[in-house]
Structure prediction request, 363 residues.
Amino acid sequence: MKNYNITLLRGDGIGPEIVGEAVKVLDKTAEKFGFTVTYTDALLGGCAIDATGVPLPQETIDKCLASDSVLLGAVGGPKWDTQPGNNRPEAGLLGIRGALGLFANLRPAVIFEPLRDASPLRSDIIGDAMDIMIVRELTGGIYFGKRGTFEEDGVKAAYDTEKYNVNEIERIGRVAFDMAMKRNKKLTSVDKANVLDSSRLWRETMNRLSKEYPEVELNHLYVDNCAMQLVRNPKQFDVIVTSNIFGDILSDEASMISGSIGMLASASLNSSKLGMYEPIHGSAPDIAGLGIANPLATILSVAMMLRYSLDEPAAADAIENAVAEVLKTTRTPDIYTEGTKKVSTVEMGDAVCALIKKVIAYG
Ligand code: NAD
Prediction:
């Protein structure tokens, strides 16, 4: 029987609660689909600072590199707000992304039909469903470029540099084209090629790459137009590929369209398919320990892990279908509406597990 080694970075705040439910669902899915999972815990963030003095111990990096995939809850909280910048929990997060070489960030923005009313957009704009995948370059561009603060004509000045080389663009481009091939074969590349040299290289490289993917329909949008189109007509998008800074902004915009932060998963991949999977929300210190956190974003992160790192697409489908089904009747407080049953974190995990079997039976 196939076995997968997963490192769990439960983290801080609600992290341990939501990861606990995701593990429960993964175990149930493994049982149904005939594989096993071995878990190793490792420390990241505030809990790592408490135990070792640093947010990212070397042991954590070693454990992650030795595993098939990594599941992260969330890190951070007021307890560690007085730490110096390079020793804050969030520094551990940036550090682990770098250490694992996670250059591609995948953020689906999906609206589940029962949660359509949670979207700030009118239902005629959203249509029957919204399902966009944003592929963001994660380790290059302006966040990693040359920067400085200096004095100019007697006043303080500062600069940051946006730089990409062809290899970096091709690498993220391939992830996006491959993703488009697995979906609706439609890819939108987003840049600012009317102004920036780095964007002109981006567009030129995407155009060249598209010759290797003749089945994928590639189009280009300037980032300002894309930001507008996302709220004007989100249905036009399937896969979007863009740079680090544009992706940071557009993926937050797209996730807001879905209306609920407790529902959104993400994946970060390196070139050998090792991935770190995590909900997009933070550690929610305001509700930590109350047993009311929504575990569905983390459970959906496990579905992404099964699809993109472990090559278990049927198991991924089963989890996603179970979540879609459970939302018809069962809600944690953050997504509760009248007429549904309000449940705790653990009860939501149990409800998804109970449906895994049923959903498989639907085929
Ligand atoms: P947050 O996402 O933790 O919380 C924002 C709001 O959403 C809160 O009201 C919270 O209760 C609610 N919320 C978030 N997730 C929820 C869930 N699963 N179920 C129900 N409600 C949920 O953002 P924040 O308050 O700005 O940050 C809190 C801490 O998390 C900070 O220390 C921040 O640095 C950290 N953070 C970590 C990550 C990460 O680990 N990837 C991401 C963002 C923020």
